[in-house]
Amino acid sequence: MCGIFGYCNYLVEKSRGEIIDTLVDGLQRLEYRGYDSTGIAIDGDEPDSTLVYKQIGKVSALKEEIAEHHPKRDVTFVSHCGIAHTRWATHGEPKQVNCHPQKSDPTGEFVIVHNGIITNFRELKTLLSNKGYSFESDTDTECIAKLFKHLYDTNIQNGNELDFHELTKLVLLELEGSYGLLCRSSHYPDEVMATRKGSPLLIGVKSEKKLKVDFVDVEFPDDNAQPETPLVSERSNGLASSRNLTVNGGRKVRLFDHEDRGNSNLLPIAANEFNLRHSQSRAFLSEDGTPNPVEFFLSSDASSVIKHTKKVLFLEDNDIAHIYDGEIHIHRSRREVGASMTRSIQTLEMELAQIMKGPYKHFMQKEIFEQPESTLNTMRGRIDFENNSVMLGGLQAWLPAIRRARRLIMIACGTSYHSCLATRAIFEELSEIPVSVELASDFLDRKSPVFRDDICVFVSQSGETADTMLALNYCLERGALTVGIVNSVGSSISRITHCGVHINAGPEIGVASTKAYTSQYIALVMVALSLSDDRVSKIERRGDIMQGLKKIPQQIKEVLQLEGKIKQLCEKDLKDQKSLLLLGRGYQFASALEGALKIKEISYMHSEGVLAGELKHGVLALVDEDLPIIAFGTRDSLFPKVVSSIEQVTARKGHPIVICNKNDEVWEKKAATTKMVTLEVPQTVDCLQGLLNIIPLQLISYWLAVNKGIDVDFPRNLAKSVTVE
Ligand code: UD1
Ligand code: F6R
């Protein structure tokens, strides 16, 4: 997920140092969305020059990069527009040339930050290359910057000195796909263009004096109204920037001749288009009618703006916002019937945490519902579903060494430990290496022997868990090869292990781990797939698993639709219960343990995951008609045994809640004749079924807790990252 941030000051004197700090701080506040590189563009020392700093990694790396170049921090600007970006690589890996801002040319006549994907970028790249442009990055965004320059230059050659927003309209005509973008240019100093289509963008407005109006009216091409009030702008207030005035010269030159291509998507340009109405709404006059010192904060996310101002204007798709000299002009290419004529400046009542939570009540709920996306992100760029192959960049060079191992030890705590248990069987089946799974604290307590030819895999969401870290150091001291499966890039475990895989689930904020579990699970399966990619005997099984993985995000989406039924279940059947048993075997034993942990930590209800085969060895004594039991009855080779365990429960008048596959006749019949409740999930490959089965349990734990009025994101006595032994 990329993040955009922009900062414009007008009649508010700021040093370059302050401007850099504001931009960098804005990026830092977008950090929770996850990213792999960052960058900013600001004014240079020479007139109309641009400084661009960018770096892969965290915002701290960008800070170091800027510091190394020693920009003069004490130069001051009365008016200035800077833009900034955090990037999550889509087109092109995270390397410096691929970071945003992207430039039109070495001097950066036009610089762009962009969220989204330009789907026709290859076509544009070919066209621009044919016109002599050379590209330095692999990004789609670079095309936009070059398109700006090309259209600017060609129009100048034709005697058209376009206003920045006119030029932007011409550029947007050529773009297909989605975007939220900011553009600044040395040809339009102290101006910025902000536009969006399918990607959020908002503008925060901060002024010392109270604003006269709380809206900005939209400008359409056929607007020909005269100014309602005398203009107070750069042209009259004496604080002018060197902004070009619009000259509506000859025919505007576009990249393609759309008429020739039969493209009816022509921009309706009325002759009086540029005789624009400058209303007070756009000029941000203060109540006494004087020019208002004003700052604008542009962002893809209110979380980075709220620190500066609560007054924000949300742009709509196809809005083209032009900011210059303390004014915001919102242009549309055409007037649509019923479309709003204004954009209101709203006062955000939300706190930062609320903004980050989106429409969800808690981070945990948000993260549960993010799983279709987070699981996809774990696999993105790593599994080739067409050729059934896996490529884990962080492990590739180490695979031969890992394959030579005589044993593999997975070490983790809590939920991360459960993801190891869930994948142990498929790991052994595919890699043919014996795998043991260890709780980090117990492993250390036992001072378990570790040898130089051991492979030790450390699984951790935070990458900072003290027990896991101690176990890692213990294994490093003994010369083992260490592999990390970690969510937090740059965390201790990620840095200290020899190699590993980032699960790319995005930041997990809720204390109860949910999306990290499903992503760890998939990452571990992918490691097992990588280790077995040289085995002919496994081709079919590996193919089935990869095709199964392909469907998982969509299937998780289906399971999430059970929320309504689960909510009811928690309000009725499970209400006021003191204890709960979860039964599973084989692949589903881990689901039972993880489900029980979720319920314990969030709803404070005692719950226990029991291996269904162990029921008759003692636990059965607990079963009566009152004890709530959740059983995993999805189809795999152990299905008959699971059915028999559940029958032992129903024979003792228990009425379990069974998580089963859709339209499974066995459970349909039983549910029809007993009080048994079923929660149906889609079927997948046996070793992946746990990815779907855990979702109802995450939802059950969530709703049990919410019904009790517990603050789900901050359960008592628990911390997100356990950095003490
Ligand atoms: C990397 C990039 C990713 C980019 C991709 C494109 C990073 C963090 N990842 O992903 O943004 O899209 O290339 O080619 O820059 N590692 C450990 N221990 C761990 C986890 C990882 O040592 O616990 C190491 C890996 O061995 C590797 C590096 O960290 O050297 C990055 O790992 P990972 O993000 O999984 O690699 P890629 O998927 O290749
Ligand atoms: C449970 C939970 C904890 C963590 C455990 C390990 O919901 O969050 O059990 O799984 O503390 O943490 P990481 O994965 O960060 O090492």
Care to describe what's here?
The chain is α/β, with parallel strands linked by helices and 725 residues long. It folds into three domains: 3-347, Glutamine Phosphoribosylpyrophosphate, subunit 1, domain 1, CATH 3.60.20.10; 357-559, Glucose-6-phosphate isomerase like protein, domain 1 (Rossmann fold); 561-725, Rossmann fold, CATH 3.40.50.10490. Helix content is 33%, strand content 22%. It is built from 21 helices and 28 strands. The strands form five sheets. Strands 3-2-4-1-11-9-12-16 form an eight-stranded antiparallel sheet, with helices on one face. Helix 4 (141-157) packs across helix 5. The radius of gyration is 29 Å and the shape is globular. The protein starts with a strand and ends in an 18-residue tail after the last helix. The relative contact order is 0.08. Mean pLDDT is 88; it is low at 225-250 and 257-278. Bound molecules: uridine-diphosphate-N-acetylglucosamine and fructose -6-phosphate.
